[in-house]
Amino acid sequence: MARAVVLAAVVAAAVAVPSAAVPGQPDPGFGVGGTAVTEFPSSYSGARAVTVQADGRVVAAGFAHTDHSVLQDVALVRYDPDGTPDPTFGDGGRVRTDFGGRFDEALAVAVQPDGRIVVAGSSGDATGTDMAVARYTRDGSLDASFDGDGMALVDFGGDSVARGVALQRDGKVVVAGWAVQPAGTGCCSADFALARLTPGGALDRSFGGDGRVATDFLPGDENGQDAAHAVLVRPDGRILAAGGAGADFGIARYRADGALDPAFGGDGRVSTDFVGDRDEARDLAVDSHGGVVAGGQSCQPPGPSDEDCDFALARYRAGGQLDRRFGNHGRVRTDLGAEVGEGVRGVILQRDGRIVAGGDTQGPGGSDVGLARYRHDGRLDPAFGSGGLVIASVSPVTDEVGGLARGPAGRLLVAGTTAVSQSFGFFVSSYRPT
């Protein structure tokens, strides 16, 4: 079956962007109308993460099902700066990798200074799920110098998934996600799980004693479901991970050896409650003063069955205290107009200090792309889109945002999954920053 590449124009929905040139408009120099859509020869594929190389080429990572079956592989697409698939990468810009599991998926992607690409995610079969990490050469081939075949699995003893990846200056790879742990007489709980790999793909035993660290935000009888969704390495070598801590935002900071850093929040852990029901951080960024911005989702139940979920941001000082100059005592909750399903998938700090959050919202036909830009104090920036918001549809049916990245000239790149050709495919959309 021939692989088809479809370019789709972005159709504004719910919040229209004015016709005059304003920040937040689609970039007409990328794809068609600002969006590129790519299909794999399968029934279903989509992007879960996106990053940009130093040369401006865009790498989106996610999954692709196999021959119209429920089996799926790790999948990557690389685009030239104008949004066309890069013919020098894999097969017409597309790469798929089978880890040997029935369900393989990339959930995070990063590019090394030498151009090699690292993805992290999961590989699962009937026996369980492990963290999966792969490294590729610049042409999309698996890098055999990484764990012998380009692929490494990290086993935490129970089910585990990597949701974020970060690269250290020394070439080591840090991944973060969650791992299932025993929980007394009950079934199980989940903890933040981090692993560090050497440049050769082996577990780095200088990190946590065996290359792995698990962090519980609610020890003892209240042990709950904790999961990291993002990770970054600071210039001083300390590591930040953000996600959900039970029903709250959770942020943990680690020293270079994997021990929790007590200079952050008193014991290395900070939890933040928004509305008392279910809050979860999904991305984070650090400013020039060491302050942290985390973005995600905040939900509260409006009725007996549905949840009302909104964009949520929290800003912290370098020591982990909420920055009370930001929003409502350090927290901002933004309703983009939908009653359900809104949430941030990516956060970018612009050079002028403004914050861009990208994620999902709900439109008439299903989920849509949502962008919001905030001033330093957490107020929406009226110079961006319409009143600080942009809502756009890639397809008339449903679009699921996987990630957000900064492109050349500060452009905003959103990647995810969209309905196409009676199936689903990758999409990447580019928006003007000014």
Describe this structure in words.
The protein is mainly β and 434 residues long. The chain contains no helices and 30 strands. It has strands spanning 5-6, 11-12, 35-38, 45-52, 58-65, 72-79, 94-97, 103-111, 117-125, 128-136, 151-154, 160-167, 173-181, 189-197, 212-215, 226-233, 239-245, 248-254, 269-272, 278-286, 292-300, 308-316, 331-334, 343-349, 355-362, 367-374, 389-393, 399-406, 412-420, 423-431. Strands 1-3-30-29-28 form a five-stranded antiparallel sheet, with no helix packed on it. The protein has a five-stranded antiparallel sheet with strand order 2-27-26-25-24, with no helix packed on it. Strands 4-5-6-7 form a four-stranded antiparallel sheet, with no helix packed on it. The radius of gyration is 20 Å and the shape is globular. The N and C termini lie far apart (42 Å). The model is unreliable at 1-19 (pLDDT under 50).
